[in-house]
Amino acid sequence: MIEEHSAKTQQEIYDEGMAVRREVLGDAHVDRANAAKDGFTTDFQDMITRYAWGTIWTRPGLDRTMRSAITLTALIAHGHLEELAMHVRAALRNGLSRDEIKEIFLQSAIYCSVPSANSAFKVAQNVFAELDAAEN
């Protein structure tokens, strides 16, 4: 797999990463992140697009629902609640149901901590309420 990625140009990896990033996070989120770039954050945005999205999220070994489940768990474990809200939306976009997200959070309560899962449930409730309000 490394050989396949090494045969691609940095621009190809970036372009594939941007496509996946837009599919997973949505155009509105990516557009906001790009609009907020400045001389201090441009290199960081480029790095996450190439490495996270262009190298890891494009790998064939796991489907996007599994990658979302892993990402949710990691964010819960480390208390990254702002990122968690973004990835709850992404998980839904990647095909996870609300019930599956609940199960991931319950599993995380055992292995990451009940307080961390409690916070995650609150974040997800807010995301679901925002999505439901937008539908109505």
From TrEMBL:
One of its GO terms (molecular function) is 4-carboxymuconolactone decarboxylase activity. Residues 43-125 form the Carboxymuconolactone decarboxylase-like domain. It is an enzyme of class 4 (lyase). Keywords: Lyase. It holds the Pfam family CMD. It comes from the Bacteria. SUPFAM superfamilies: AhpD-like. Its EC number is 4.1.1.44. The keyword Manganese does not apply. The keyword rRNA-binding does not apply. InterPro entries: 4CMD/NDH-1_regulator, AhpD-like, CMD-like, Decarb_PcaC. This is 4-carboxymuconolactone decarboxylase. It comes from Arthrobacter koreensis.
